[in-house]
Amino acid sequence: MAKISLLSCGPRLLRLSQAATPLARPAPISQGHLLMPSKPPVHRPKGWRSDQERKAELDQRRGSSSKRGYGADWRALRNDHIARHPLCRHCEAEGRITLATDVDHIIAHKGNDALRLDPNNLQSLCKRHHSKKTATEDSRFARKKATRSGDRIR
Q1: Total domain count, the chain
Q2: pTM of the prediction?
Q3: Is 98 in contact with 91 (CB distance < 8 Å)?
């Protein structure tokens, strides 16, 4: 029977035959304790969902653009407005020339067809300005902030 000799190398014990081979990586021998994994498990609270999962659920609850009032009549009006006003209204006011990507309701229509399809209630905006306006005026956060401070949203 061959006797296995152990080489002491700090907290790890290596088999002498493993230490002698230059290309093999020495494997630690457990002495009754667990070795640390290379990456600890990530613990999440119960019910935690990723951003991607939350966005998919929100999109499912929101309904299609047609169900939210943006059907064929809106698309025709939007395309006509972009053709007549191709530049961002806010960028023009700042002295810049930027193509508009979005058509925005100046006064939120909230389901009112007269406001929703009124060409005088529309403005062409670039993505940056439309996102900024939506975040500051039309979002849930903006509505909560305005009702707390007594401001009126226009």
Answers
A1: 1
A2: 0.55
A3: yes
